[in-house]
Amino acid sequence: MRVLVGIVALSLAVFAGAVRPAAQEGHPLKGSWIGTWGPAKSHSNDMVLILNWDGKSISGTLNPGVDDVAIKNATLNPEGWVFRFEADVKEKAGTTLNYVVEGKIENLAFPNRTVSGTWKNQRESGKFKIGRQ
Amino acid sequence: MTFRAKGLMAASLAAIVVASAAVAAHHPISAKFDDKKPMTLSGIVTLVDWRNPHVHIFMNVRDAKGTLNWAVEIESPIELQQSGWNAETLKPGDAITVQGMAARNGSRQIWGNTVALTTGSKRLFALTPMAPVAPLAARPSPRWPDKQPRLGPLPGGVQGYWGFPTSTVLAEANVPMDAYGLLRNVADAPKVAPMQPWALALYTERQKRFLQDDPTYINCKPPGGVRQFQISYGVQLVEDRERQRVFVLIGGGNNNFRIIYLDGRGHVGQVGGDDDNPLYYGRSVGKWEGDSLVVDTRGFNEDFWFTNGGVPHTEQLKLVERFTRTDFDTLKYEVTVEDPGAFTRPWSGGWNLRWVAGQELPRHLCQDNRP
Fold first, then answer.
1. Interface with A, mutate which of B210, B300, B303, B313 (most A CBs under 10 A)
2. What is the longest distance spanned by two Cα atoms in chain A?
3. Helix (H) or strand (E) segment spanning residue B77
């Protein structure tokens, strides 16, 4: 039992270290973000967003991997720290859903800042929240 | 003992121990304490916590409601030692009176501008050392046999380092701010540097939070960029001519050092395996132009504040620094900042550093991420 407790404690310690966000004192959106989006808390999906800033525009990838999607028309309004972007997601049926996502940066001063807000496409809408990793 | 949150009362004290002036403190006092809330406390020392970055004295203070333990934050061990203090100067049981300013968050903490013994024999301590007095006549810069200026001491001469910068802030306009880069008026933020809108908004936010999120102090991040020439404890420039490089030893940088390569190499791949890894001190290459060492540094990461006050930068930051020893005791530091990720155009600034003769470079270690 003592060994088990030790393993659990060690695992938690390692996990805690692993999820500590890296410092980021430059552009507040740059980096990796993980969170959820969905119609409701009880029905939500994971969301990963990789963002970059080149000095002129914000670029990024939604859910990197086999079905990743490049974001477009991304803007950050420093007045209120409102982040907005769009993404065209192609469905298996061939139709394309245009997602419009808008959220606000919270806890700006901290590495583990978050963005929370709303999303919508031609069919539905919901909320999302992502945190910087 | 009584607790009096008002006015200056120390004049009547029998014996005085003076703590160092606030201007030399290691990190922004204003981030934690409010200079508009003067406070005087009298009580009994319970503990002296002699550690970096700031020493803390804990004291019991009695008022009408009972006895409460307060934390008194004072200068760093280095500065206190330079002023004649040591870890034994105050002991548990000593009765003291502290003048200073209260914590912004209302907690039982006070910054101690002065700490006075209320009993006992008279003990006076000097203020924090000021910059060395300039000689009546400027001495010429020391030079190597090939006439190139030396950035360190004369061969066989007394040791020394560069410290006491004439300015500890970088701004392209003369904007009122304190030694830590905290603006007197936040509305002046656009005058500091030609920041892009996001950078200006972030800088303004940092200012409104009294620089309390400064990663150099809360996370012991290295003082990269121009900051190594702004913070307390100075720098030592060690020239290794045989290997064509200059080491910048940083007194306030947790035993960090920076290397300036003079052998003509590029900015990439100076250290095996880190070609694509942005660094706190970037990658510096330099060359002599007349009597000035001109250093081009790129490859910075974004994990720190490159100048006091929190002007943001990105990985596109490029610094061109000019080091000119204008006379034996003066090092002129000029820098041009380029970062198309954060600024709308290049901008520049600079200051002078004084030669501190006969002293070893202080070594300050950020400790346990203490505030």
1. B303
2. 57
3. helix B77-82
Q: Is residue A3 part of a domain?
A: no
**Chain A residues touching residue B341 (CB < 8 angstroms):** 26-27, 53-55
Mean pLDDT value of segment B278-286: 93
Instruction: Using DSSP bridges, classify how beta strands B283-289 and B257-261 pair: parallel, antiparallel or unpaired.
Output: parallel
Nearest Cα of chain B lies from the Cα of A124 at a distance, in angstroms, of 32
Amino acid at B349: G
Q: The domain spanning residue A57 has which CATH number?
A: 2.40.128.20
Instruction: State the ipTM, two decimals.
Output: 0.84
Tell me whether residue A109 is in a domain: yes
- Say how many domains are in chain A: 1
- Domain-embedded: residue A31: yes
Q: Do B302 and A25 touch (CB under 8 A)?
A: yes
Q: Residues of chain B with pLDDT > 90: what percent?
A: 58
User: Å from A75 to nearest chain B CA?
Assistant: 11
Determine whether the interchain pair A22/B202 forms a contact, defined as Cβ–Cβ distance below 8 Å.
no
User: Which residue segment(s) compose the domain that A88 sits in?
Assistant: 27-132
CB contact under 8 A, B342 and A81: no
**Residues 6 or more apart in contact with residue B86 via CB below 8 angstroms:** B80
On whether residue A9 sits in a domain, the answer given is no
pTM of the model: 0.84
CB contact under 8 A, A55 and B341: yes
Q: Which residues pair with B331 in a beta bridge?
A: B325, B353
